Amino acid sequence: MHTHDISHWGHSHDFATADQADAERRTRWVVGLTLAAMCVELVAGWITGSMALLADGWHMGSHAAALGIAAYAYAFARQRGADRRFTFGTGKVSSLAGYSSALLLATGALWMLVESLSRLIDPVEIRYAEAMIVAAFGLAVNLLSAWLLGHSGDGHHHHGHRHAHEHDHERVHGHDDHAHDHGRHDHRHGLADIQDHNLKAAYLHVIADALTSVLALAALAMGMLYGWAFMDPLMGIVGAVLVGRWAWGLARESAQVLLDAGDNSAIEHEIRRRIEADADNQVADLHVWRIAPAGRACILSLVTHHPRPVEHYRDLLSGMTGLLHITVEVNQCRQASCGARVNTPT
């Protein structure tokens, strides 16, 4: 007979993945690249006396600061992944950083809108050739940054957590078993469905900047060729609207995770289906919420006339991707009818 001390039943809540480590490394590269571009533009602007270069240099500085938030968030989550003060680990730091970056994106969009409107009303002289050089340089830097961030996770790393423990005891209302399971975490993602809000925020920052450079080049070209000076502030307004829309979407997604209000209906339906397809089990209470960029926690309470060992219910949910932490409560019903489920998915 094997005996275990209490540490056997404990487990880590560090759900960091290899993809996140790769994203942190690439984000640091982008911060370094942006700072280098800032220095080049500031030095060139000082030597040539170009206000356009100086202005874009300081803009690169604010861009690096925003990306620095993403880099810091990854480092914070990694260093405190085993800190017991964080009940379910530091997985939500990504969403917190994403929400903060969304606010910065929105602030930038508002500044672009106000500045463009003021220039539309009161036009300023534009040095087209010089401005196009700055825009082209900025576009090249941001395209390289977007490539670095966009290829994060392409190595298809896999990181799994598998831990289970159980304990049985009698309660006043019947027989309860609790099972805690760290499900297998195995995911691949692309930019279209990336769930790491921190990485998405960093990517949107460089894409927004690249979009601004593209619109600026188009407006400057039309201004140089046809004398349409109004196109520069007009393109600024278009860019502000697009960036503002991206900021709103990122803020909404990350806020839902921070408030445990994400859409988990599909995974909840699958949990109910697997549990209630077995014997006379009924799901009495079910809570699913995101605790990591690609992982969720689950608290499940079920009622049955014939309780089974905890391993049985854990096996019913095995293979469900993204369930990192599962708590199952089994309640024995001693009446003829156990009644309807307490709650239903919305």
TrEMBL record:
Q: Which Pfam families match?
A: Cation_efflux
Enumerate the UniProt keywords alphabetically. Ion transport, Membrane, Transmembrane, Transmembrane helix, Transport, Zinc, Zinc transport
Location comes to: Membrane
**Does the entry feature the keyword Transport, yes or no?**
yes
Q: What is its main location?
A: membrane
Among SUPFAM superfamilies, the record links this protein to: Cation efflux protein transmembrane domain-like
Q: Where are the transmembrane segments?
A: 29-52, 58-75, 96-114, 126-149, 202-222, 228-248
Residue ranges of region Disordered? Answer: 158-189
Q: Which GO terms describe its molecular function?
A: zinc ion transmembrane transporter activity
UniProt domain Cation efflux protein transmembrane: residue ranges: 33-259
- One CC-aspect GO term: membrane
UniProt membrane topology term: Multi-pass membrane protein
Q: Which terms does the UniProt entry file under GO BP? A: intracellular zinc ion homeostasis
Compositionally biased intervals (Basic and acidic residues): 165-189
Family matches, as Gene3D superfamilies: Cation efflux protein transmembrane domain (1.20.1510.10)
Look up keyword DNA damage and say if it applies: no
> InterPro entries, from UniProt?
Cation_efflux, Cation_efflux_TM, Cation_efflux_TMD_sf, Msc2-like
Family annotation (NCBIfam families)? CDF, CDF_efflux_DmeF
The entry's protein name is: Cation diffusion facilitator family transporter
Q: What organism does the record attribute this protein to?
A: Thiocapsa marina 5811
Q: What is the lineage of its organism?
A: Bacteria, Pseudomonadati, Pseudomonadota, Gammaproteobacteria, Chromatiales
